[in-house]
Automatic annotation (TrEMBL), chains A, B:
Boundaries of every Polyphosphate kinase-2-related domain copy: 8-231, 259-478
Record keywords: Transferase
GO molecular function, one term: transferase activity
The protein's name: Phosphate--AMP phosphotransferase
Gene3D superfamilies: P-loop containing nucleotide triphosphate hydrolases
InterPro entries the record matches: P-loop_NTPase, PPK2-related
Pfam families linked to this entry: PPK2 (PF03976)
Length: 483, 483
């Protein structure tokens, strides 16, 4: 630890700069390798402690072309919004270093102080827990996260405040309003103490930098960044106690109920209308996802769900292999990106479960990665359902014979011919491995908030009716006991 | 043309569906080929003319996995905002088909009717012109654009309005407020006439579909999409009358003034502070861009510009080769994406001029492409400067000897060693071709709104002072005569 009395020599800062640049390039060059990783730096702190100055100094010491800085005034944290939504575009890709000056913690701090919604002690603690999980996920997926708090005594804060023409300094801040951001109150001892007591509830795992001495502060900040850049990649979390599950009985032999066309048509129309109404007026965001073997009927079911909805009311996401820029980010990132807009109804034709299905079966990732994914996905869905979303998951189950019949039918139907590819036939050869993966997935990711619904789908009519009914039931059940 | 009396047979719709799917896959398969193209469909229309229904029907006929639909309530068009900003993520990539239900025209229509700012006749005409230029740019860059207006008589509009429980139907619309979106007024003949007269000012190149008969309407809509999908790629616009220019004198032999270190330091500090103040309080968005040979001093100049700014006040964009997902879109798209956030100061270390510099010299594109780019870039910058942005462009000019000296210096300076790569040496071998390209660029893209500033940069001190002074002058000059 450096004491205040120590002087920093020019030679020291030159060496620091050189080390930083070297470490930046080393990070950059991990991109595309097995060692690929990124660095995310969260910065917060007391006003006038010198965050901006330290960031500016850092930018001069590093190669600024490889340090991305995203700085904003706080976003409002509310129970309706996911804290990570504003930050999705700024999660670093492999090889990147991103500094978030303003981040989910400072959003929470500002919202606690000035927000429109009261944040209870319990909610606060829950937000922090979610944020920790989010960061753990990033860490486990090769994005290191460090958090740095700039602190300052009340006496020095007030001294620095006096030196400043606040009205002028803040004029340029986007969307600035005094009401939102009552800077004059910083003279207030109570506010200072409030900030300190709120931030102490989340900064126990932060690096704290004393902003008293400007040079030391800047030097220490840059050294912390250097240490983070040079830190060897962390060991991945231990894999979970995974045990292969027995094949789920409904997967092995889907129930074979059969519905007459006439009865189907009658029930269908009624249900389609009922469901559209229920979804339209549900105040929550609705996340529907469909998994199942090729030709299990996912697309057909989705068609019926949206029958009486307006295209403005929903988004359909058809998930296939990630693109290159998506592969350079944590696996869940591309789904965060799709859910960023907070639109009311999101329907996934295949989903993040690709991680524990195709990616597992095709050996695209290590055993450790897909086993850890059960946890990661559960947390992600928990996070969604804590924020006014309801997550409804379907596995459409068909027999191997039925799949063959449908493949052949597709080959013989001009409109469907396009839907069948060599890949479908290759997947079919791994039928048993997919059944194992699906059975494990059902076991490990059927949670209280987001249970799986296994739908026997050898008969399309039966399956569709059951899917519509299930969604209706889930919406009604959860509607009765709002959180 | 189909008349209302004609019936559409089941066989016809089946064939249409098949043709659509085939055409979709043909489009998708152009991705990554020389024939790569995308399709953008803009949809607007009178309320109750059946836009939603036609889109829903289309989704049933096509393979919905390859039709993206983006639907929103209107964005406010204001003089401070670029009309394309909300739509950047929804410009289709090669191989994609995107339907914008709600788009820049409907934004303009809604803003004319209900907007907070008055839109004058002249502004309206200018917006339309900008929109046309934007679409021409897309077309020339392999994104076909079709625009479809659903029309309906007042009598039928009112009849359909009566059938509807409006309050309920609109409850789900995001951010909905009656004040913004006074639906009850649709009964009003004057409003209907207003909408018609406004939309007629932009729909002359739209396909108009009569919404009277639901089946015919849906069928015709889908047929127009099919026709667009099947249309052979358009001929690229003729290349401009390009003539190679003489090498710009200041590029061949940059003026060699020299500034003493002491004088430099004094002037610099004063200018840095003045400039920070000027930029901070300028109400416009500021776009600064730097081009020049490798080692011309772009990074060093940028450092001095931001010296007294807060990191929250600016963004620096270091532009290198586009990533793959960016290459699958029109060239300017990645710059639209960077300017999407409407942040106050954007600084580009290299820029969209890569098109007529490195891409031209390295033969990455055809002569026709880079020659057309002069126009495209001029329009883009004109568009920026029409919307409260000031665009300030620098070419930093050094001699070939000076570059060699700097390269050698970089090799011998540990902190700078990283900045020099084999590519820099390869570029140097093409010195004369770059000079030619730069001279042409200066000639063809120095416009009234966005003139080039050529800065003799053999002496770094002189260059930096001149750059700071130039920005100050531009800010002041344009500040005096606000548009």
């Amino acid at each position: 630890m450096m004491t205040k009395r120590q002087q920093i020599t020019k030679k020291q800062t030159e060496q620091l700069s050189l080390d930083l640049i070297e470490a930046q390039y080393a990070l950059k060059n991990t991109r595309g390798t097995d060692q690929a990783r990124g660095l995310l730096i969260l910065v917060g702190g007391i006003e006038f402690a010198g965050k901006s100055e330290a960031i500016k100094q850092l930018r001069e010491w590093v190669d600024p072309r490889h340090l991305y800085v995203k700085a904003d005034i706080p976003n409002q944290i509310t129970s309706k919004k996911l804290f990570w939504q504003p930050y999705v575009p700024f999660i670093p890709a492999h090889g990147q270093m991103m500094l978030l000056f303003g981040n989910w913690y400072t959003d929470l701090l500002a919202s606690s102080l000035y927000g429109e919604e009261q944040i209870s002690e319990q909610d606060f603690a829950e937000y922090i827990e979610q944020m920790h999980h989010f960061e753990q996920y990033l860490q486990a997926n090769d994005i290191d996260v460090i958090k740095i708090w700039f602190d300052l005594s009340l006496a020095t804060t007030q001294k620095r405040l006096e030196r400043l023409d606040l009205a002028k300094a803040l004029q340029r801040v986007p969307n600035f309003s005094w009401a939102k951001f009552p800077v004059s109150n910083w003279r207030n001892k109570k506010l200072y103490n409030d900030i300190q007591s709120i931030r102490k509830r989340f900064t126990s795992d932060w690096i704290i930098i004393d902003g008293e001495d400007e040079k030391l502060r800047n030097y220490q900040f840059a050294q912390e960044i250097l240490a983070a850049l040079k830190k060897p990649p962390q060991l991945k979390p231990q894999k979970i106690a995974y045990q292969a599950q027995d094949i789920h009985p409904q997967l092995n032999a889907p129930a074979s109920t059969y519905l007459e066309k006439k009865a189907y048509k009658q029930q269908l129309k009624k249900l389609e209308k009922q469901l559209a109404e229920a979804m339209r007026y549900d105040p929550r965001n609705i996340v529907l996802l469909f998994e199942g073997m090729d030709a299990a009927g996912k697309g057909g079911a989705i068609k019926r769900i949206i029958k009486y909805l307006d295209p403005r009311e929903y988004q359909i996401h058809s998930i296939s292999a990630p693109e290159r820029h998506e592969r350079q980010r944590p696996y869940l990132w591309r789904f965060w990106d799709k859910l960023r807009d907070d639109s009311a109804i999101n329907i996934f034709d295949r989903s993040w479960y690709g991680r524990v299905l195709v990616e597992r079966v095709e050996h695209l990732i290590s055993d450790q990665d897909w086993q850890r994914a059960y946890h990661e996905i559960n947390r992600f869905e928990h996070n969604l359902s804590q924020h006014s979303a309801i997550v409804i998951k379907f596995w459409l189950s068909i027999s191997k014979d039925e799949q063959l019949k449908r493949f052949e039918n597709r080959l013989n139907t001009p409109q469907k011919y396009f839907k069948i590819t060599d890949e479908d036939w290759r997947n079919r050869e791994k039928w048993d491995q997919y059944l194992q993966a699906a059975s494990d997935m059902l076991h490990y990711t059927s949670t209280e908030h987001a249970p799986w619904h296994v739908i026997a789908s050898n008969d399309k009519y039966t399956a569709r009716i059951q899917i519509l009914q299930t969604i209706l039931e889930r919406l009604n059940a959860e509607g009765e006991c709002p959180k």
